[in-house]
């Protein structure tokens, strides 16, 4: 079975008490849900980002992605090698690329991200772009904290953010 750009293969997986939905196109991983989000949330995202996508439940097509995610959660993987197919504005893509450069086990604040992309006054826009990250964990938005060093909002919830940061220490 081959994937085309309008087909999104999806599956769900469970880690501890968290259930996730994952989606990928022929180009790469395009979506990881927040923990315990509904299938409808994933479906709505897909129809917002793609023109009439075909959603096909097919775990076999996602095995590579699932294997890497499970290895990360088990502390066996620090870097992802999976391709991604990110759907977002040029600004969002720039922010997400910058997030991908935050080393495993380190954090940055929103101001540092805004400075890194050459837009130091765009802290709020950076925060919005981070919140729109469609591939939690793999694009490490959990590594972004408040300027005061405190944990701030996270699409996956603060419990998950704390868990991921502990996992990386």
UniProtKB/TrEMBL annotation:
Keywords: DNA damage, DNA repair, Methyltransferase, Transferase. GO terms for molecular function: methylated-DNA-[protein]-cysteine S-methyltransferase activity. The keyword DNA repair applies. GO terms for biological process: DNA repair; methylation. Residues 9-86 form the Methylguanine DNA methyltransferase ribonuclease-like domain. Residues 90-169 form the Methylated-DNA-[protein]-cysteine S-methyltransferase DNA binding domain. InterPro entries: MethylDNA_cys_MeTrfase_AS, MethylDNA_cys_MeTrfase_DNA-bd, MethylDNA_cys_MeTrfase_DNAb, MethylG_MeTrfase_N, MGMT_N_sf, WH-like_DNA-bd_sf. This is methylated-DNA--[protein]-cysteine S-methyltransferase. It comes from Paraliobacillus quinghaiensis. The gene is ogt.
